[in-house]
Protein backbone atom coordinates (compact mmCIF):
# COMPACT_ATOMS: atom_id res chain seq x y z
CA UNK A 1 0.00 0.00 0.00
CA UNK A 2 2.84 2.38 0.82
CA UNK A 3 4.35 1.84 -2.63
CA UNK A 4 0.99 2.46 -4.33
CA UNK A 5 0.50 5.64 -2.29
CA UNK A 6 3.97 6.84 -3.29
CA UNK A 7 3.31 5.98 -6.95
CA UNK A 8 -0.01 7.85 -6.90
CA UNK A 9 1.60 10.87 -5.24
CA UNK A 10 4.43 10.87 -7.78
CA UNK A 11 1.94 10.65 -10.65
CA UNK A 12 -0.09 13.57 -9.31
CA UNK A 13 3.09 15.60 -8.86
CA UNK A 14 4.16 14.93 -12.47
CA UNK A 15 0.71 15.87 -13.74
CA UNK A 16 0.83 19.11 -11.76
CA UNK A 17 4.31 19.95 -13.06
CA UNK A 18 3.07 19.35 -16.62
CA UNK A 19 -0.49 20.70 -16.49
CA UNK A 20 -0.52 22.91 -13.37
CA UNK A 21 -1.22 26.63 -13.54
CA UNK A 22 2.46 27.58 -13.85
CA UNK A 23 3.42 24.63 -16.09
CA UNK A 24 4.42 24.72 -19.74
CA UNK A 25 1.18 22.96 -20.70
CA UNK A 26 -0.96 24.51 -18.00
CA UNK A 27 -4.25 26.37 -18.58
CA UNK A 28 -2.68 29.85 -19.00
CA UNK A 29 -0.17 28.63 -21.60
CA UNK A 30 -2.72 26.61 -23.56
CA UNK A 31 -5.35 29.36 -23.33
CA UNK A 32 -2.82 31.91 -24.58
CA UNK A 33 -1.84 29.68 -27.50
CA UNK A 34 -5.52 29.17 -28.34
CA UNK A 35 -6.22 32.92 -28.17
CA UNK A 36 -3.27 33.71 -30.47
CA UNK A 37 -4.39 30.94 -32.81
CA UNK A 38 -7.89 32.42 -32.95
CA UNK A 39 -6.49 35.89 -33.66
CA UNK A 40 -4.39 34.39 -36.46
CA UNK A 41 -7.45 32.59 -37.86
CA UNK A 42 -9.54 35.78 -37.81
CA UNK A 43 -6.81 37.79 -39.50
CA UNK A 44 -6.28 35.17 -42.23
CA UNK A 45 -9.98 34.76 -43.00
CA UNK A 46 -10.84 38.45 -43.01
CA UNK A 47 -7.79 39.40 -45.07
CA UNK A 48 -9.12 37.02 -47.72
CA UNK A 49 -12.71 38.17 -47.35
CA UNK A 50 -13.91 34.79 -46.10
CA UNK A 51 -16.46 33.94 -43.43
CA UNK A 52 -15.57 32.93 -39.89
CA UNK A 53 -17.03 29.98 -37.98
CA UNK A 54 -16.20 27.81 -34.98
CA UNK A 55 -16.03 24.74 -37.22
CA UNK A 56 -13.70 26.53 -39.62
CA UNK A 57 -11.47 27.57 -36.74
CA UNK A 58 -11.13 24.00 -35.46
CA UNK A 59 -10.36 22.69 -38.95
CA UNK A 60 -7.86 25.46 -39.61
CA UNK A 61 -5.96 25.27 -36.32
CA UNK A 62 -6.18 21.50 -35.83
CA UNK A 63 -6.04 20.08 -39.38
CA UNK A 64 -6.62 16.35 -39.39
CA UNK A 65 -3.72 15.68 -41.79
CA UNK A 66 -1.31 17.09 -39.16
CA UNK A 67 -2.95 16.03 -35.90
CA UNK A 68 -3.27 12.37 -36.94
CA UNK A 69 -0.08 12.10 -38.98
CA UNK A 70 2.52 9.45 -38.17
CA UNK A 71 4.92 12.23 -37.16
CA UNK A 72 2.42 13.67 -34.69
CA UNK A 73 1.81 10.27 -33.13
CA UNK A 74 5.53 10.00 -32.38
CA UNK A 75 5.37 13.54 -30.92
CA UNK A 76 2.55 12.46 -28.60
CA UNK A 77 4.40 9.37 -27.39
CA UNK A 78 7.73 11.10 -26.78
CA UNK A 79 5.97 14.06 -25.17
CA UNK A 80 4.28 11.68 -22.72
CA UNK A 81 7.50 9.76 -22.01
CA UNK A 82 9.70 12.84 -21.59
CA UNK A 83 7.15 15.09 -19.88
CA UNK A 84 5.33 12.62 -17.66
CA UNK A 85 7.39 9.46 -17.21
CA UNK A 86 11.07 10.43 -17.42
CA UNK A 87 10.98 14.04 -16.23
CA UNK A 88 11.44 13.19 -12.57
CA UNK A 89 14.69 11.43 -13.40
CA UNK A 90 15.94 14.40 -15.41
CA UNK A 91 15.74 16.53 -12.28
CA UNK A 92 18.18 14.25 -10.43
CA UNK A 93 20.74 14.57 -13.26
CA UNK A 94 20.65 18.36 -13.57
CA UNK A 95 22.38 21.09 -11.62
CA UNK A 96 19.99 23.21 -9.58
CA UNK A 97 19.77 26.93 -10.25
CA UNK A 98 20.22 27.63 -6.53
CA UNK A 99 23.26 25.33 -6.34
CA UNK A 100 24.93 27.20 -9.21
CA UNK A 101 24.06 30.55 -7.61
CA UNK A 102 25.56 29.53 -4.26
CA UNK A 103 28.67 28.02 -5.89
CA UNK A 104 29.27 31.24 -7.85
CA UNK A 105 28.74 33.37 -4.76
CA UNK A 106 31.16 31.20 -2.74
CA UNK A 107 33.79 31.46 -5.50
CA UNK A 108 33.45 35.27 -5.59
CA UNK A 109 33.71 35.50 -1.80
CA UNK A 110 36.82 33.30 -1.83
CA UNK A 111 38.44 35.14 -4.71
CA UNK A 112 37.60 38.75 -3.93
CA UNK A 113 36.43 38.71 -0.32
CA UNK A 114 33.07 39.67 1.10
CA UNK A 115 31.67 43.05 0.11
CA UNK A 116 28.93 45.38 1.22
CA UNK A 117 25.81 45.17 -0.99
CA UNK A 118 25.20 48.05 -3.40
CA UNK A 119 22.13 50.07 -2.41
CA UNK A 120 20.11 50.52 -5.59
CA UNK A 121 16.35 51.13 -5.63
CA UNK A 122 14.49 47.85 -5.29
CA UNK A 123 12.61 48.18 -8.58
CA UNK A 124 15.88 48.82 -10.42
CA UNK A 125 17.42 45.61 -9.09
CA UNK A 126 14.25 43.67 -9.94
CA UNK A 127 14.24 45.03 -13.49
CA UNK A 128 17.95 44.36 -13.97
CA UNK A 129 17.59 40.82 -12.62
CA UNK A 130 14.65 40.18 -14.97
CA UNK A 131 16.56 41.33 -18.06
CA UNK A 132 19.88 39.71 -17.13
CA UNK A 133 18.27 36.35 -16.31
CA UNK A 134 16.43 36.39 -19.66
CA UNK A 135 19.64 37.19 -21.55
CA UNK A 136 21.58 34.49 -19.66
CA UNK A 137 18.83 31.92 -20.29
CA UNK A 138 18.75 32.77 -23.97
CA UNK A 139 22.52 32.74 -24.35
CA UNK A 140 22.76 29.29 -22.75
CA UNK A 141 19.94 28.03 -24.97
CA UNK A 142 21.54 29.51 -28.09
CA UNK A 143 24.96 28.08 -27.19
CA UNK A 144 23.59 24.59 -26.48
CA UNK A 145 21.55 24.67 -29.66
CA UNK A 146 24.61 25.78 -31.62
CA UNK A 147 26.66 22.87 -30.25
CA UNK A 148 23.99 20.32 -31.11
CA UNK A 149 23.93 21.58 -34.68
CA UNK A 150 27.66 22.05 -35.21
CA UNK A 151 29.10 18.94 -33.53
CA UNK A 152 28.19 15.86 -35.62
CA UNK A 153 28.10 13.49 -32.63
CA UNK A 154 25.65 15.78 -30.78
CA UNK A 155 23.59 16.35 -33.92
CA UNK A 156 22.69 12.63 -33.77
CA UNK A 157 20.70 13.38 -30.60
CA UNK A 158 19.20 16.65 -31.83
CA UNK A 159 18.22 15.03 -35.12
CA UNK A 160 15.41 13.26 -33.24
CA UNK A 161 13.71 16.63 -32.72
CA UNK A 162 14.31 17.74 -36.31
CA UNK A 163 12.94 14.48 -37.70
CA UNK A 164 9.39 15.75 -37.10
CA UNK A 165 7.75 16.11 -40.50
CA UNK A 166 4.81 18.03 -39.05
CA UNK A 167 5.02 20.57 -36.23
CA UNK A 168 2.59 20.62 -33.31
CA UNK A 169 2.76 21.99 -29.78
CA UNK A 170 3.86 18.52 -28.62
CA UNK A 171 6.91 18.56 -30.91
CA UNK A 172 8.58 20.64 -28.18
CA UNK A 173 9.27 17.45 -26.19
CA UNK A 174 10.12 15.26 -29.15
CA UNK A 175 13.65 15.37 -27.79
CA UNK A 176 16.28 12.88 -26.79
CA UNK A 177 17.01 12.72 -23.03
CA UNK A 178 20.68 13.61 -23.63
CA UNK A 179 19.62 16.85 -25.31
CA UNK A 180 17.15 17.67 -22.54
CA UNK A 181 19.80 17.16 -19.85
CA UNK A 182 22.44 19.24 -21.64
CA UNK A 183 20.04 22.16 -22.12
CA UNK A 184 18.79 21.94 -18.52
CA UNK A 185 22.33 22.05 -17.15
CA UNK A 186 23.57 24.82 -19.42
CA UNK A 187 20.59 27.01 -18.53
CA UNK A 188 20.95 26.27 -14.80
CA UNK A 189 24.67 27.10 -14.87
CA UNK A 190 24.10 30.33 -16.83
CA UNK A 191 21.17 31.69 -14.84
CA UNK A 192 22.52 30.44 -11.50
CA UNK A 193 25.88 32.10 -12.16
CA UNK A 194 24.17 35.37 -13.06
CA UNK A 195 22.23 35.35 -9.80
CA UNK A 196 25.39 34.45 -7.89
CA UNK A 197 27.08 37.55 -9.32
CA UNK A 198 24.05 39.72 -8.64
CA UNK A 199 23.77 38.39 -5.08
CA UNK A 200 27.44 39.26 -4.56
CA UNK A 201 26.80 42.80 -5.82
CA UNK A 202 23.36 43.52 -4.36
CA UNK A 203 23.05 41.10 -1.45
CA UNK A 204 20.66 38.21 -0.75
CA UNK A 205 17.15 38.16 -2.13
CA UNK A 206 17.88 39.23 -5.71
CA UNK A 207 15.13 37.95 -7.97
CA UNK A 208 13.35 38.90 -11.20
CA UNK A 209 9.83 40.17 -11.66
CA UNK A 210 7.78 36.98 -11.81
CA UNK A 211 4.57 35.72 -13.34
CA UNK A 212 3.31 32.21 -12.52
CA UNK A 213 6.55 31.58 -10.57
CA UNK A 214 8.78 32.31 -13.57
CA UNK A 215 10.62 35.23 -15.13
CA UNK A 216 7.80 37.50 -16.26
CA UNK A 217 9.26 38.01 -19.75
CA UNK A 218 9.71 34.30 -20.41
CA UNK A 219 6.26 33.55 -19.01
CA UNK A 220 4.64 36.22 -21.20
CA UNK A 221 6.25 34.50 -24.18
CA UNK A 222 5.05 31.09 -23.00
CA UNK A 223 1.44 32.12 -22.32
CA UNK A 224 1.03 33.93 -25.62
CA UNK A 225 2.57 32.58 -28.84
CA UNK A 226 5.33 30.38 -27.37
CA UNK A 227 3.60 27.10 -28.20
CA UNK A 228 3.01 28.25 -31.78
CA UNK A 229 6.75 27.94 -32.52
CA UNK A 230 5.95 24.33 -33.41
CA UNK A 231 2.87 24.79 -35.57
CA UNK A 232 1.78 25.29 -39.17
CA UNK A 233 0.77 28.91 -38.51
CA UNK A 234 3.00 31.39 -40.32
CA UNK A 235 3.21 34.30 -37.88
CA UNK A 236 6.30 36.29 -38.82
CA UNK A 237 8.01 39.14 -36.97
CA UNK A 238 9.99 41.35 -39.32
CA UNK A 239 12.04 44.54 -39.06
CA UNK A 240 13.50 45.32 -35.63
CA UNK A 241 11.02 42.98 -33.91
CA UNK A 242 12.30 40.14 -36.09
CA UNK A 243 15.85 40.84 -34.91
CA UNK A 244 14.94 40.79 -31.23
CA UNK A 245 12.10 38.25 -30.90
CA UNK A 246 11.64 34.72 -32.19
CA UNK A 247 8.31 34.45 -33.97
CA UNK A 248 6.67 31.13 -34.88
CA UNK A 249 7.90 31.63 -38.45
CA UNK A 250 11.47 32.03 -37.19
CA UNK A 251 11.34 28.56 -35.67
CA UNK A 252 9.62 27.01 -38.67
CA UNK A 253 12.53 28.29 -40.76
CA UNK A 254 14.84 26.62 -38.22
CA UNK A 255 13.11 23.27 -38.84
CA UNK A 256 13.33 23.60 -42.63
CA UNK A 257 15.35 21.01 -44.55
CA UNK A 258 16.47 23.71 -47.01
CA UNK A 259 20.29 24.11 -46.69
CA UNK A 260 19.81 27.90 -46.80
CA UNK A 261 17.99 27.60 -43.46
CA UNK A 262 20.43 25.25 -41.69
CA UNK A 263 21.70 26.43 -38.30
CA UNK A 264 19.52 29.53 -38.36
CA UNK A 265 17.33 30.95 -35.57
CA UNK A 266 18.81 29.00 -32.65
CA UNK A 267 17.23 31.11 -29.90
CA UNK A 268 14.20 30.27 -27.79
CA UNK A 269 12.20 33.46 -27.16
CA UNK A 270 14.78 35.98 -28.37
CA UNK A 271 16.43 36.42 -31.77
CA UNK A 272 18.95 38.82 -30.26
CA UNK A 273 21.82 36.33 -29.85
CA UNK A 274 21.19 35.01 -33.35
CA UNK A 275 21.47 38.57 -34.61
CA UNK A 276 24.71 39.14 -32.69
CA UNK A 277 26.35 35.84 -33.70
CA UNK A 278 25.21 35.81 -37.33
CA UNK A 279 22.75 32.91 -37.18
CA UNK A 280 19.61 34.99 -37.73
CA UNK A 281 17.23 34.49 -40.63
CA UNK A 282 14.34 36.96 -40.51
CA UNK A 283 11.32 35.34 -42.19
CA UNK A 284 9.32 37.09 -44.87
CA UNK A 285 5.82 38.36 -43.99
CA UNK A 286 4.22 35.95 -46.46
CA UNK A 287 4.61 32.23 -45.97
CA UNK A 288 7.85 30.83 -47.32
CA UNK A 289 8.00 27.36 -48.82
CA UNK A 290 9.47 25.11 -46.13
CA UNK A 291 9.55 21.35 -45.73
CA UNK A 292 10.22 19.87 -42.30
CA UNK A 293 12.33 16.83 -41.50
CA UNK A 294 15.85 15.50 -41.98
CA UNK A 295 15.74 14.51 -45.61
CA UNK A 296 16.84 11.06 -46.73
CA UNK A 297 17.25 9.72 -43.18
CA UNK A 298 13.68 10.47 -42.09
CA UNK A 299 12.71 6.79 -42.16
CA UNK A 300 15.21 6.07 -39.38
CA UNK A 301 13.10 8.13 -36.95
CA UNK A 302 9.72 6.48 -37.45
CA UNK A 303 10.12 4.40 -34.27
CA UNK A 304 9.96 5.82 -30.74
CA UNK A 305 12.30 3.11 -29.46
CA UNK A 306 14.76 3.85 -32.26
CA UNK A 307 14.60 7.56 -31.46
CA UNK A 308 15.84 6.84 -27.94
CA UNK A 309 18.51 4.23 -28.70
CA UNK A 310 19.81 4.84 -32.24
CA UNK A 311 21.49 8.19 -31.40
CA UNK A 312 23.74 6.41 -28.89
CA UNK A 313 24.93 4.06 -31.65
CA UNK A 314 25.54 6.96 -34.03
CA UNK A 315 27.33 8.88 -31.28
CA UNK A 316 29.57 5.87 -30.69
CA UNK A 317 30.40 5.67 -34.41
CA UNK A 318 31.43 9.34 -34.38
CA UNK A 319 33.52 8.80 -31.24
CA UNK A 320 35.35 5.81 -32.76
CA UNK A 321 35.98 7.75 -35.98
CA UNK A 322 37.34 10.69 -33.99
CA UNK A 323 39.64 8.46 -31.94
CA UNK A 324 40.99 6.88 -35.11
CA UNK A 325 41.72 10.32 -36.54
CA UNK A 326 43.41 11.65 -33.42
CA UNK A 327 45.42 8.52 -32.56
CA UNK A 328 48.17 9.17 -35.18
CA UNK A 329 48.56 12.72 -33.91
CA UNK A 330 48.93 11.51 -30.32
CA UNK A 331 51.52 8.95 -31.41
CA UNK A 332 53.37 11.71 -33.26
CA UNK A 333 53.43 13.89 -30.15
CA UNK A 334 54.67 10.97 -28.08
CA UNK A 335 57.48 10.35 -30.57
CA UNK A 336 58.51 14.02 -30.39
CA UNK A 337 58.72 13.86 -26.59
CA UNK A 338 61.06 10.89 -26.86
Explain what you see.
This protein is an all-alpha fold and 338 residues long. The chain has a domain at 64-238 and 295-331. The chain is built from 15 helices and two strands. A two-stranded antiparallel sheet has the order 1-2. Strand 1 and strand 2 (214-215) form a beta hairpin. Helix 8 (122-150) crosses helix 9 (152-162), helix 8 (122-150) packs antiparallel against helix 10 and helix 9 runs antiparallel to helix 15 (304-337). The longest helix is centred in the last third of the chain and has 34 residues, at 304-337. It is globular and about 70 Å long. The mean pLDDT is 92.
Largest sheet: 2 strands, antiparallel
Helix content: 55-70%
Number of strands: 2
The strand line-up of the biggest sheet is 1-2
pLDDT average, as an integer? 92
Quote the beta fraction.
under 5%
**How does the helix and strand content classify structurally?**
mainly alpha
* Order of H and E elements: HHHHHHHHHHEEHHHHH
Judging from the principal axes of the Cα atoms, what is the shape? globular
Give the N-to-C terminal Cα separation. 68 Å
Report the total helices: 15
Uncertain residue segments: none
Based on CA atoms alone, the radius of gyration comes out at 22 Å
Question: Which helices and strands occur, and which strands form pairs?
Answer:
Layout: H1 2-19, H2 27-47, H3 54-61, H4 64-67, H5 70-85, H6 87-92, H7 97-112, H8 122-150, H9 152-162, H10 177-202, E1 210-211, E2 214-215, H11 216-222, H12 239-244, H13 248-254, H14 272-277, H15 304-337
Antiparallel strand pairs: 1-2
Amino acid sequence: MAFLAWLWSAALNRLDLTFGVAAAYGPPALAGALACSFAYYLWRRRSRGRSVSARGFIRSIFPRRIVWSASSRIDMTMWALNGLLFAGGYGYLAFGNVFCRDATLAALDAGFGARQPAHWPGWTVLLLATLVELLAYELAYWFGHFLFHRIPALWEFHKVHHSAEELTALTELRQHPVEILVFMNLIAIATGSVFGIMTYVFGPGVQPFTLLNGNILLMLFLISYGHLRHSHMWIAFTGLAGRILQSPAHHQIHHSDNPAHFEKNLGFALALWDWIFGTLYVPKPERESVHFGVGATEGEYSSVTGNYFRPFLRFGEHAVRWLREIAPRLRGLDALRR
